Amino acid sequence: xxxxxxxxxxxxxxxxxxxxxxxxxxxTNSLIALGHxxxxxxxxPGHGYEAEARARVLNPTPRDLAAxxxxxxxxxxxxxxxxxxxxxKSVFHNLWLxxxxxxxxxxxxxxxxxxRYALFGWAGISLARRFGIPHLTELNAPLCDQQHGYEKFVxxxxxxxxxxxxLRASDAVIALSPWLKQWTISLGxxxxxxxxxxxxxxxxxxxxxxxxxxxxxxxxxxxxxxxxFVGSFQHWHDVPGLLRAFHRLHRKDKDLRLLLVxxxxxxxxxxxxxxxxKxxxAVIFTxxxxxxxxxxxxxxxxxxxxxxxxxxxxxxxxxxxFEYMAVGKPAVAAALGQxxxxxxxxxxxxxxxxxxxxxxAEQIAKVLYDPGLASAMGAAARxxxxxxxxxxxxxxxxxxIAKSCGAGDRAKAATRRKLQPA
Length: 422
What we know:
alpha/beta, Rossmann fold, 6-stranded parallel β-sheet, 19 helices, globular
């Protein structure tokens, strides 16, 4: 089948390092590996990072006077002062996508549209109705709640109203966690249309057994027990809690090292904290690394951490957890939401009380100083993820859902077109 993938989020960089970028590329790569033709319409391709995206990537943006007008509006002092640039850019992109996207879809004739949910992201549903094809929404977060208080999120009432409208109107919603599934239903989406499909890993990147030797040599980790973390250093990740737990362990074992892979808004604060705790000589901040190299860094770890603060609404499907497990490393993870459903404590990982530094340190120590336990849990974790949580598996499920909505059925599409005209 031919599939149009839409990401209208102006802050998601297709060729970026963060989990959202990896998610888009690896999911669409897996669709292509299954024999489907995929085009990606994205708001921000990004630049400066060579990553494999096998889909044809299109970036519908305003041209000529429309481009000048949008640029000038974003530069208006009143717009900047009121922090309206981000929201206006999102709205403009969807308006433009309705027109430019229609020309693309008229030429490409996809069997269905798959769209990553974004604030103000109505264009995909509008195009699906216009062409009489199914529309599937992938829901990664309750964005209005997640971005509450963000200074660049200004059109809050409009976004919240549209959030419910979009989720109710889509032919199917792919929720990444049980929390998101129930939340979508609470907004009025019909339960049979809401499907639970967690995050996953790429067989292309993770199926081969990785060696951490090169990374261990680079950062002088040979002979050192190493605790690790891979992520984008967001405030909810609780890397400060991991640093404090490491501090407790390091006081008793000076040969311990902490390998922190990635970069984000909390990175500099974490570096300051490591200095304040006087452990900076034992903590390595690698910065961002290419996704294809992540297995090498995880393989250099003896135990991998999935730290989170205590949260009432834990809607995440942590990509890092699945990647640790795929490499065959035991994970010590916060007992929250989907994490507690994926990990079987003592069999393929360990859980700790979220936000509890003592609990995190104790659980890390259990596996760090028991190589036999670490090896057994790592092997079980790898087997579970490669059997049940790959992007190929996700792609197969999504295509099946799309077919149940009428994708590829031209007779049904014709009926849909009559019932729901442009």
